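Bit of a strange request maybe. I'm writing a small parser for C-alpha cell strings and I need a real example to test against, not something I typed by hand. Could someone generate the C-alpha cells for this chain?
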Amino acid sequence: MRAPLTYEAARAAADAALTQGRAEGLRLAVAIVDRGGITRILLADDGVGPIGIETARRKAYTSAVTGFTTAAFAQFATSPQMAAAPPHLIDPHLLPAPGGLPITVDDTEIIGGIGVGGADGDTDDRIAALALKTITDLLA
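Reply from user aminoacidic:
Good idea to test on real output. This should exercise your parser:
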C-alpha cells in the first residue's frame, strides 16, 4: 500500500524550498504533485513569473508520471531511440529540464513528484533535493 502524500508533508517541503531560495536571493516556484500528477501544492514566491510557475508544475508532473528525475528524462527524451516520437511531444505536460524529482517510499514506490522553477537547472535540482529530503523525513 502506498504511503499517502499528505498536505502537511507537501506544504512543509514547499516551504523549505522557498525558504532556501530566499536565503540564496532567489525567487522560486515549487510544485508538488501526487502519483497521478495532480497538483497538491503550488507555491510561488514574490516576483516569480508565469514561466517559473509553469515549469515547476510540469517538472513535478514529469517526475511523478515517468519515475525519472527530469534531468534523466531530458537525456532520455533526446536520445536517438526517441527521435521518432519524443515523449514530451506525445504528452505536452512533460518537461525535459532539470529541477524535478520523483518522491518515493521504500526507494521503489513512487507517490509523487517535486518540481522547482525560477532559477537555472542545477539550482532548481539542488533546491528540489532539499524539498525531497523534507518530505522523506516527514513520511518516515
